Amino acid sequence: MRRAIAILGGTGALGQGLALRWARAGEEVIIGSRDRGRAQAAAQSIVQLVGPSALVSGMENSAACARTKLCVLTVPFGSQAALLKELKAVLQAGTVLIDATVPLAASVGGRATRVLGVWQGSAAQQSAELVPPGVSVVAAFHNISSDTLHRDAAVECDSIICSDDEQARKIASELAEKIPGVRAIDGGKLENARIVEQITALLIALNIRYKTHGAGIRITGIL
Question: Is residue 216 part of a domain?
């Protein structure tokens, strides 16, 4: 059964890239933002790229969250806790929250390549501590380049999916594989998200070193 996908903080590069790919796959996407106007503008730009059949709308974050039980969090780490506290009243039991947050240190004059320490162990574990009971948190989409998502070509990258909820992990994996070229890899428990989040900083450093924007990962030896 298809459910609308609410992308919270969806006006950023990663959020819009995921929205574009899922809209192309025929999914209904709701782009969330602090600013409803920005969300609607981002939604309209995706409709223009995909065509009039695209099911994409824009709303304020809380309205987007209230519309569905499938949410993807794509905000910077500095905004993660505050947004989840704001959404606590509208996050419904049974919701799957897919968290792509990476706790990167702020960088002056360049891209951040250092991961901050998080008391809970990872940004995803912090989310799990902040959401209401009955909400399942999944860590995913950390290592997929937003630049690559915005292109037309297949995304040659694996997405490592971590969660303590097997059904939630399955849902996130199905979403990942709706993006051409992406393979979902079962990364085990949510506590493993701390490792996956750290890989993002390494990929950013590789992008800088090799003057590219699309570094990703492939796990070999798995069929």
Answer: no
Residue 218 lies in a domain: no
pTM listed for this prediction = 0.94
Domain count for the chain: 1
User: Which residue range is the domain that position 13 belongs to?
Assistant: 5-209
Compute φ and ψ for 3, nearest 5 degrees: -120, 145
**DSSP of the chain, one letter per residue?**
----EEEETTTSHHHHHHHHHHHHTT--EEEEESSHHHHHHHHHHHHHHH-TT--EEEEEHHHHHHT-SEEEE---HHHHHHHHHHHTTTPPTT-EEEE----BPP-SSS----BPP-TTSSHHHHHHHHSPTTPEEEE--TTS-HHHHTSSS---EEEEEEES-HHHHHHHHHHHTTSTTEEEEE--SGGGHHHHHHHHHHHHHHHHHTT-S-------S--
- The verdict on residue 223 lying in a domain is no
Here the tokens at position 139 are 């860590």
The string of pLDDT tens digits covering residues 3-59 is: 899 999 999 999 999 999 999 999 999 999 999 999 999 999 999 999 999 999 999
- State the residue for tokens 């947004």: 83
